[in-house]
């Protein structure tokens, strides 16, 4: 598996399964409503503890294809440390971690002083990890972390995802990779602050500006995460403890033993242990220049993108194509895979933007020799990431046409949902299709941008694996 970020808009059983798949791709969450007895915090400083209606999906950064030497395996992690005796546990520490899930509806008000220095001690059953927090460079993120730590939100949670040579992820009250505080807040990406070393503390997310409570600590350089995750601290003591934390992947074995984060203790100081960073020069804001699409029907029948190695097509464009199809016409896609041929009906009348995009990319040869990135048996297939590095795709998003195809079956095709904007618009990947491997409940149709249905070759779908490819997609057009 390669290294993406993660995102999803989960609904129903299929949605939660999809969110779990996405969790494997990055740092994830398929949340739900908060419990009815979710406590309210201290007046003036704690967000109101009402449930949010929509779950969140936290993006999980993915490791490089090759793993580093192993750390502690489940059941073979050595001695543990007893829980600390806390004189004053946080106000929500007295309820179970799962009851804290989705308990707030808004990020906390600013309560730290960005001119001060903050230190966090992560008390774990393997020992202590002390981190200096970057309040000067990521004040909102540090404020959020300090707030949750002081509330006891992190108490007795687990390191739910720990991958060799990559990172240790925690901060989910459900321990599944699917939980969070119930709110989201924006990224704080600082020029010059990059994933170039071990011991960096950063936020997990499910896409831009979707931070919550989940965080991770790197085991080494992870440069593919640059610009995608907010870095807000650096380990200053106890980096050896990270090597003792039990390695586990909830997607491989959700019942594997996990190490405990007893609590996070916060200190405020007037002095810095780490050297004071030199301010980076201002970074000019680039002007996006749309890359024109090549003609979709060259006279000589060439497919220009097919001549490029698949990996070089990642982020190749930065704007969607102009409308080139006739929604009154019928379109059929012939999908040739390494296991056989599939035929799909495209719903141009119901989802013209999605179908137009798919037709244009197919005619350009974008999908030729495309890897199959993820297969969740009895759930979903994900393809359309040219460098097999989710969520890298064609380079732009589409405004999703939700709920336009009412009848769904095995082989229904939707674009990968990426994020929901403040105005409610759902944005999907510009090139990554999800292909359903199960019959979908009726309630799924309104929640995903389905645009096609495989009508021939459905029996091939369960045989596809991540070792297979989509060799080509060709489009035929006919009168209605």
How do the helices and strands line up, and which of them pair or pack?
Blueprint: H1 12-25, E1 72-73, H2 97-100, E2 117-124, E3 127-133, H3 139-151, E4 157-158, E5 161-163, E6 167-170, E7 200-203, E8 215-218, E9 231-237, H4 239-242, E10 246-247, E11 260-269, E12 330-337, E13 340-346, H5 352-364, E14 370-376, E15 380-383, E16 397-399, E17 412-420, E18 426-436, E19 450-456, E20 469-478
Parallel strand pairs: 1-10
Antiparallel strand pairs: 2-3, 2-11, 3-9, 4-11, 5-6, 6-8, 7-8, 7-9, 12-13, 12-20, 13-19, 14-15, 14-20, 15-18, 16-18, 17-18, 17-19
Structure, described:
The protein is α+β, with helices and mostly antiparallel strands and 480 residues long. The chain folds into two domains: 12-269, Cyclophilin-like (Cyclophilin, Beta Barrel), CATH 2.40.100; 304-478, Cyclophilin. 10% of the residues lie in helices and 25% in strands. A nine-stranded antiparallel β-sheet has the order 4-11-2-3-9-7-8-6-5. Residues 1-14, 19-57 and 63-70 have low confidence and may be disordered.
* Total domains: 2
Question: If you average the pLDDT, what whole number results?
Answer: 81
What fold name stands as the CATH topology of the largest domain? Answer: Cyclophilin
Rounded radius of gyration (Å) = 23 Å
N- to C-terminal distance = 42 Å
- Secondary-structure element sequence? HEHEEHEEEEEEHEEEEHEEEEEEE
């Amino acid at each position: 598996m390669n290294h993406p970020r993660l995102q999803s808009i989960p609904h129903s059983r299929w949605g939660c399964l999809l969110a779990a798949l996405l969790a494997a791709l990055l740092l994830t969450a398929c949340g739900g409503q908060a419990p009815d007895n979710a406590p309210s915090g201290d007046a003036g400083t704690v967000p109101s503890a009402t449930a949010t209606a929509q779950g969140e999906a936290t993006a999980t950064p993915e490791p490089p294809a090759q793993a580093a030497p192993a750390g502690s395996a489940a059941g073979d992690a050595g001695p543990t440390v007893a829980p600390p005796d806390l004189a004053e546990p946080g106000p929500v520490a007295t309820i179970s971690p799962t009851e804290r899930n989705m308990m707030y509806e808004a990020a906390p008000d600013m309560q730290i002083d960005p001119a001060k220095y903050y230190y966090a001690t992560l008390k774990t059953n393997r020992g202590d990890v002390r981190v200096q927090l970057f309040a000067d460079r990521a004040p909102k993120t540090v404020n959020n972390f300090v707030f949750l730590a002081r509330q006891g939100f992190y108490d007795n949670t687990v390191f739910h995802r720990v991958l060799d040579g990559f990172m240790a992820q925690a901060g989910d009250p459900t321990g599944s990779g699917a939980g969070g505080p119930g709110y989201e807040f924006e990224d704080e990406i600082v020029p010059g602050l990059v994933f170039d070393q071990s011991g960096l503390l950063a936020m997990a997310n499910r896409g831009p500006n979707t931070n919550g409570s989940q965080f991770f600590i790197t085991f080494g350089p992870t440069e593919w995460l640059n610009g995608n995750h907010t870095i807000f601290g650096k380990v200053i003591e106890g980096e050896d403890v990270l090597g003792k934390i039990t390695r586990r992947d909830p997607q491989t074995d959700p019942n594997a033993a996990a190490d405990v984060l007893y609590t996070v203790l916060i200190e405020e100081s007037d002095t810095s242990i780490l050297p004071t960073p030199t301010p980076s020069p201002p970074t000019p804001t680039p002007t996006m220049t749309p890359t024109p699409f090549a003609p979709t029907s060259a006279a000589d029948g060439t497919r220009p993108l097919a001549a490029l190695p698949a990996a070089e097509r990642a982020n190749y464009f930065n704007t969607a194509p102009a409308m080139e199809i006739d929604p009154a016409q019928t379109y059929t896609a012939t999908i040739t895979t390494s296991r056989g041929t599939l035929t799909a009906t495209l719903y141009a009348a119901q989802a013209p933007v999605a179908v137009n995009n798919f037709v244009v990319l197919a005619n350009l040869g974008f999908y030729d020799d495309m890897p199959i990135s993820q297969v969740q048996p009895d759930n979903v297939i994900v393809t359309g990431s040219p460098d097999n590095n989710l969520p890298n795709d064609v380079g732009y998003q589409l405004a999703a046409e939700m709920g336009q195809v009412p009848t769904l079956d095995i082989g229904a095709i939707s674009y990968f949902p990426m994020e929901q904007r403040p105005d409610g618009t759902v944005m999907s990947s510009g090139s990554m299709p999800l292909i359903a491997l199960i019959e979908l409940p009726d309630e799924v149709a309104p929640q995903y941008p389905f645009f096609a249905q495989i009508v021939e070759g459905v029996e091939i779908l369960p045989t596809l694996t991540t070792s297979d490819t989509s060799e080509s997609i060709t489009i035929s057009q006919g009168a209605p």
